[in-house]
Give the backbone structure.
Amino acid sequence: MGSRAHRILLIEDTAPLARLYMEFMRAEAYDVAHAETGRDALAAAEARPPDGVILDLKLPDMEGLDVLRILRERDPDVSVIVVTAHGSVGVAVEAMRCGAFDFLVKPFTAERLNVTLRNALERRSLARMVDGYRRDLDRDRFHGFIGASPEMQAVYRTIESVAASRASVFITGESGTGKEVAAEAIHQASPRRGKPFVALNCAAIPKDLLESEIFGHVRGAFTGATADRVGAAAQADGGTLFLDEVCEMPFDLQAKLLRFIQTGVIQPVGSSRAEKVDVRFVAATNRDPLREVEEGRFREDLYYRLHVIPLHLPPLRDRGGDALLIARALLADCAREEGRRFTAFAPEVEAAFRSCDWPGNIRQMQNVVRQIVVLHDGEVVTADMLPPPLRGGGATPRRAAAVPVAAQGVPPADPAEETITPLWRLEKDMIQRALRLCGDDVPRAASLLEISPSTIYRKLQQWKTDGDGGGG
């Protein structure tokens, strides 16, 4: 319910009763404000919105029901308890139809008042929690991301949870899933948003220049160093340094990066001067980082320094209806940039987009939509405008989650054999085998099975719920 005391607005024009009710509430340590008229009450509620209201329906200047309606219009979740005399119970019932939580008939005890008030405040708290959950479910855009699927809602919540921290975040996911978008989202949601966000792709820079790109260099440090250069680490001072494809970093440079992470100190190439900088590290890779460690290509101590908070981005094929949401947004953007008239996809085109596996994820979809818009024009994208891989529903077939792996080692079917193993059983056996071989490391097992970790977590929960006999 929060750390501050709940604000209660008591609206009662009879001074002795007001003092009595305030005495009743003293033990609960509420922050109580008192108003004797409807107008004063509405002004007080506007200045300091209350969590709960105790409202006497008989006021000298306004009808209590009018006060109730205005309070509810301002804050639909405010919990209002109306107070009435024995002969006015019908009015109290009408007040509840207008949104009051409950009513109290005079006279009442302190216990009756406080129990009713506690129930009202708990109801308000639950209502706000449900509203927040619904907003999460309805959220289809988030700091550059487009998607309303449960998998993406989990990503959004993780980003919101870690943004304020200084802890390093390690993003994994297939190429084209939006790892740099996630890194920028972490930065934009953090207190560092006003400082630089500097992204460095470790795979796109020649290995002999990567150290200079990160730490900078001084003039004459090497052939071609004709002037001092500020590296990405210094540029990101106070902000966020994003190291994309970090597993591509040369092994000897990894030791220098580890020392930088541990000390916060950098030394430009060719310089004897050390500099202190303050950066938040976000790293990303489309590889399995643990396998890179096991095979000796990535330092284990660096892995654990960077892999403080893991964030996995699901592939587009595991995000349900997000594919169409993204495709429509891309179509609108591309049409505007290219001066085309497109506003929608034909139903058969939407079906092709939904059924496509998108092995290149969002980057592949961007290329497809851009190609359609550049080569054609019209208001609706039709099937004949689709590039060959998608035309006619053909082409990039959707992979079944466990079929490519499950098929390995399965003997050819005997035409005379009458017993067929259910597909869910094959899938379950293969996932359990992968987990066993990977030491129950779900992200690694998912990578080897070429499925999303969320798929494994969902299956495990489903099997736990169903027991051993159901496949769902």
Summary: DSSP finds 19 helices and 16 strands in the chain. The radius of gyration is 31 Å. The longest strand covers residues 79-84.
